[in-house]
Design goal:
Helix content is about 30%, strand content about 40%. It starts with 9 loop residues before the first helix and ends in a 5-residue tail after the last helix. A 6-stranded mixed sheet has the order 2-1-6-5-4-3. The protein contains 4 helices and 6 strands. This is Nuclear transport factor 2 family protein. InterPro entries: NTF2-like_dom_sf, SnoaL-like.
């Protein structure tokens, strides 16, 4: 498959997809994934499989964590994009003092010819994530 064969140009699909994450909209995010999608946050947890499971995963994640995105760069290929970004997390120390944590992230997102996300692999800077969650008293 080439970019020209996609139902929507890859940068346009990314822009639409990114809106879902920026607005924390599980319905929009899930609607852009294939029925048999795989979402894998490489933090030791199991991959999420299927559109409905992804929707619920997003609902749970957005309820648990308050974070925003700072895009560093996005690279487009024929059937996938790679986005380097920084997750900015609003957290609290166990005593209640708020703090902001920054974690470097990298996503590899594969799409099919219909323009559906078939797989999203998310990699995080483990040392930064571990330090942030430890400071907040969160065990992962």
């Amino acid at each position: 498959m080439t970019t020209a064969e996609l139902a929507l140009p890859l940068p346009d699909l990314f822009a639409r997809y990114h809106v879902g994450w920026e607005t924390r909209d599980p319905e929009l995010i899930a609607s852009l994934h294939s029925e048999d999608t795989v979402f894998h946050l490489h933090d030791g947890s199991d991959a999420v499989r299927g559109r409905d499971a992804l929707r619920q995963h997003c609902i749970d994640m957005f309820a648990r964590f308050d974070f925003t995105h700072e895009v560093v760069r996005t690279l487009y290929c024929d059937d996938h994009w790679v986005i380097e970004w920084t997750m900015v997390l609003a957290l609290e120390e166990p005593g209640g003092a708020p703090f902001t944590a920054r974690v470097e992230m990298l996503d590899v997102v594969t799409v099919n010819a219909r323009g559906e996300v078939t797989r999203k692999d998310v990699y995080m800077n483990g040392a930064e994530a571990q330090a942030a969650f430890a400071r907040a008293g969160i065990r992962r």
